[in-house]
Specification:
The chain is mostly beta strands and 314 residues long. The chain has four helices and 15 strands. It has one domain: Jelly Rolls (Sandwich), CATH 2.60.120.200.
């Protein structure tokens, strides 16, 4: 029996994709700036926000796995997007406790240039029991190219595929992709053609903001760790389709396989856009009460996970 068990364990290890980068947790409380510098490769502090024990991002003990320490993001009541709890716009370096954001580009990806057109991001997120969904907020996702695909900025020189929570914990992929989706067809016309499909590949578009994929295909839950796995495959030619797939707790929930992610080909997938805050373009998105989210078990790898199409429903 032990020989069979050893064989199975070795096979599982052999089949596990090789990580480009990973971080699971710490075994003791550490300073967040030291952690980012030592283990979160190529964190750009200049474009980051919310980083620091006296701001939003810190390291705290895991409420489920005692003795393990994970990333914790604090959201102050009344904050949204880039505004503080008094509705005043936050400026660089100001500690607003509105959430946290920074880019992670591991050395293994930098050394490879822009060759990655396929990548998978895994991590776990924990919403505490008092978390208020309000109108919604952002969660980390993949990114590539310049750093201009967020905050309502649409660019043909980058993409991002962050996740979002919505009212009642509805989830979605919130993508910034090229608006040149179909030759000779306006973006809004394309949006209308894909907004009445099954939830797992339904699209909603709003002028000047991201493209909502699979909104409501699944729901986040409070008080437990949720495993997220996002795979992005970039298109290689103009008007060729790429695809975005999302698994929640190892169950495929979103699969958009007919979306053009880029129409410029001098960039690939560069890493993670760690971005989380409430909002949103106005105060109706504001955080309803002081609250936190937690993050652990990050992995980046190039392989595409197996997709069971029978899981995709609704």
């Amino acid at each position: 029996m032990s020989c069979v068990k050893d064989f199975v364990q070795k096979r599982i290890r052999a089949e596990k994709p090789a990580d480009l980068w990973s971080w699971s947790h710490e075994t003791h409380k550490v300073n967040i700036n030291d952690l980012l510098k030592q283990k979160f490769e190529s964190v750009d502090h200049h474009s980051g926000y919310g980083i620091g024990e006296d701001d939003s991002l810190s390291v705290e003990e895991d409420p489920v796995h005692h003795g393990q320490y994970v990333l914790s993001v604090f959201y102050k009541r009344g904050t949204w997007s880039h505004y503080n709890h008094n509705g005043v716009e936050c400026h660089n370096g100001e500690k607003c406790q509105r959430g946290a954001g920074f880019y992670i580009q591991p050395k293994s990806i930098r050394d490879a240039g822009h060759q990655f057109i396929s990548m998978t991001l895994e991590y776990e997120v924990f919403f505490n029991n008092s978390f208020g969904w309000q109108r919604g907020g952002k969660l980390p996702g993949l990114w590539g190219g310049t750093r201009d695909c967020s905050g309502g900025r649409i660019s043909d020189h980058c993409f991002s595929t962050r996740l979002m929570w919505r009212p009642d914990g509805q989830g979605e992929v919130y993508a910034y992709v090229t608006h040149d989706q179909k030759a000779g067809v306006p973006f809004n016309t394309w949006c209308e053609s894909v907004q009445h499909r099954e939830l797992y590949h339904q699209v909603h578009c709003t002028d000047g903001t991201g493209t909502e994929i699979g909104k409501g295909a699944f729901h986040f839950e409070k008080g437990k760790w949720i495993k997220l796995r996002e795979h992005v495959h970039l298109n290689s030619h103009q008007h060729e389709h790429g695809y975005v797939t999302l698994w929640v707790n190892d169950h495929a929930e979103i699969h958009m396989n007919d979306i053009v992610i880029r129409n410029q080909f001098n960039f690939g997938i560069d890493g993670i856009l760690f971005s989380t805050f409430y909002g949103g373009s106005d105060h109706t998105w504001a955080c309803p009460a002081d609250t936190t989210t937690l993050y652990r078990n990050f992995r980046l790898y190039a392989e595409a996970p197996h997709l069971n199409n029978n899981e995709l429903v609704g």
